[in-house]
Amino acid sequence: ETGRSPKMTTMRIQGVRTGLRVTAFVLAHGVGGGLWRSSAFEMRPARVHRIRSASDPARLRKGIAELLREVSPACVRDRGCFSLALSPDVVADLLADAHAPFEGCDTASWRVFITDQEYVEGEEARGNEGGEAKGKEKKKPSLAEILTGACRIPEDRIHLLDQSSRDAEDAAARYSREITKLVPGAIDPEFDVVVLRLHRGGRVCGLEPGSGEALNKDVLVLASGARVSFATPLLDAAKRIGVVVMEEREGKQLEAEFDGPDPKRPLSQVSCVPEIFWFNLDKTAE
User: 244, 196 in Cβ contact below 8 A?
Assistant: First the structure.
């Protein structure tokens, strides 16, 4: 009304994870009154990027272990278990040489899944071990052997792909059902922590930038050929995501993987995870 300052309306919206597209309607009274409609605008949850740079892989491994030790006790206390998903690259490249990195944690209350695995028809679950090395080179340990041995996680708390499935599609469906059953969540399963490896070019979790798999929002776990991977909706439901980057990058370059202008990158499809932890290799870090 004439002579009065406009009033500000504060609205709190709860329970929204992926964001909103909002159009405001205002009904004005008096001279020149009527119904006014704003242009549509987007509202997204706030996100925090925490960068933990390290000068070598051993320090990266230490940073990941510290994160899991920090958050797992509260998750076990509040939800009865700690739900963790690990990239196979992180397990094979960073944890294989570890010595009890999670010592002091109640790993008997953990549930550990792998973000992307290969379905091998007619073989028992070997956990993407990578096969035997040629000649007299030592055989590479499987993911299960690394997790139970170096990481000292009980075998019954490690959940790998069911290699007795009919095919990769069936294995993906079974893994999705197992995750849904064992990982609590309001709508989709909500992992307490997902630790991914970001490769040069933007590939993550077995998902290539611009691929149909990277943009698939209809399933939680998908199969592409023999590869079975977490789909972006499952990543998007996580409470925290850790991203390992083995080459040096600046903070803005890292954040752009999630918040940058390229909609084809897999991590750009992850819009509602509130905390992102970067484990970035930086030779200048202390």
Answer: yes
Q: Residue 285, exposed/middle/buried by CB under 10 A (0-12, 13-18, 19+)?
A: middle
Residue-averaged pLDDT of the chain: 83
Distance in angstroms (rounded) separating the CA atoms of residues 133 and 100: 25
Regarding pTM above 0.85, the answer is no
- Which of 58, 108, 119, 111 is CA-nearest to residue 86? 111
CA distance 168 to 240: 28
Place of tokens 């070019």: 201
Within its chain, how far is the Cα of 186 from the centroid? 17
Give the rounded percent of residues in the chain with a pLDDT score beyond 90: 47
Question: Is the CB of residue 186 less than 8 Å from the CB of residue 55?
Answer: no
Backbone angles phi, psi at 41, to 5 degrees: -140, 160
| Each residue's pLDDT tens digit, 67-85 | 999 999 999 999 999 999 9
Cβ atoms of 174 and 166 within 8 Å: the answer is no
**Alpha-carbon Rg for the chain in angstroms:** 22
**Sequential DSSP letters for 152-178:** ---GGGEE---TTSSSHHHHHHHHHHH
- Distance from C-alpha of 86 to C-alpha of 196, rounded to nearest angstrom: 6
